Amino acid sequence: MHNHRSTTVPPTRAATGGTGPAGPCRPHDVYVLSEDESRLLDGIAVEVSTAYDTVEDPRFIADARLFAQRLPLGLRRWIEQVRLSADLGSFRIRGHRLRDADLPPTPPDFEREPARPALAPEVCLVLFGVLLGDVFGWETQQAGRLVHDIVPSEQEQKSQTSASSAVELGWHTEDAFHPYRADYLGLACVRNPDRVPTTLAELRSLELSERTRSVLSQPRFHQRPDTSHSPTGSDDVGAWSDPPLARVLSGMAGSRSLCVDADFTVVADDEDMEAEAALEELKREIESRLGDLVLEPGDYLFLDNQRCVHGRRPFRARFDGTDRWLKRVSVTRDLRRMAEAGVTATKRTARAVLAS
Ligand SMILES: [Fe+2]
């Protein structure tokens, strides 16, 4: 049997009701790979790298779920459990033994050309992701690739994008502005020598008044597009400045999903003081619950994009090939509903701006 270790961490500080500084944050469930399981992953990754040009190869994407069926049974069973969990907001797979010497230098920007042979972490990230849904990318991000590189870029040091380093990347729902944003984000850690923390707060740990939940569940807000998507190529740039009315919470008592960005969610009507107060209460509550999580090489973190917000602490980037390097993949639970964004089974890149 596998050596699955489920960490049953109580909801963050909910039990004590404390409001002190956030302690170390752990996802509420972790699967630790055995050495045998780690070797099995490497074997599948080598096979994929031999059979396909890159992880971007459409033939690999078409076959990915078939390869995923050969992942260790214990791991597949655990992923099925977390996929069906009632309120889990994040979960992590650990213990894939990566040898830093076998990995290329951290690219100075996202990799223009996908790696060949594909790196084991990116192959595994896709295989884990397809057990949760279907992977997709964006026309306006990283040249439409499905597997993104999260690396510090010298030009973007102070931006509010994942290429930043010198500033805190504020907590957010990924692509909060987009109706077809990912249901899950998967992050694979290739290297993180300075132990730069990812930040995380889960919906289920938030304590909000009933009135605040009700106001946040009404369409009284705008989700402004963040700056990680370039509107280049869009013939409807106006759509970026005129976002529709949006809710921040959905579901019964706002418990099903959360969609909010510390910097880009705003109240629609300047004079709507009640909505302003509710948004402020939510922001304060998220700040008080926000915890740090340090990803290590061989870690895979999945964020449920409806049940948690995430960000990253600031750090001093090196720009010398040894910087923090994550691989990222977006997963939808329902590929069909993304047709409106131009996504099909064989064309996995979504349009950021939808035709009106
Ligand atoms: Fe993000």
TrEMBL record:
InterPro entries named in the record: Alpha-KG_dependent_hydroxylase, Clavaminate_syn-like, TauD-like_sf, TauD/TfdA-like
Does this UniProt record's set of keywords contain Cell wall biogenesis/degradation? no
Q: Kindly give the Gene3D superfamilies that the UniProt entry links to this protein.
A: Clavaminate synthase-like
Record: residues binding 2-oxoglutarate? T212, R324, R328
Q: Which UniProt keywords are listed? A: Iron, Metal-binding, Oxidoreductase
**Residue ranges with Low complexity bias:** 7-16
Annotated Fe cation binding sites: H172, E174, H310
In residue numbers, the region (Disordered) covers: 1-27, 214-241
Instruction: Write down the Pfam families for this protein, in alphabetical order.
Output: TauD (PF02668)
Highest taxon of the source?
Bacteria
Q: Any keyword Zinc-finger?
A: no
An example of a GO molecular function for this protein is: iron ion binding
TauD/TfdA-like domain residues = 140-329
Of which family is this protein a member? Belongs to the clavaminate synthase family.
Official protein name in the record: Arginine beta-hydroxylase, Fe(II)/alpha-ketoglutarate-dependent
User: Which organism was this protein described from?
Assistant: Streptomyces parvus
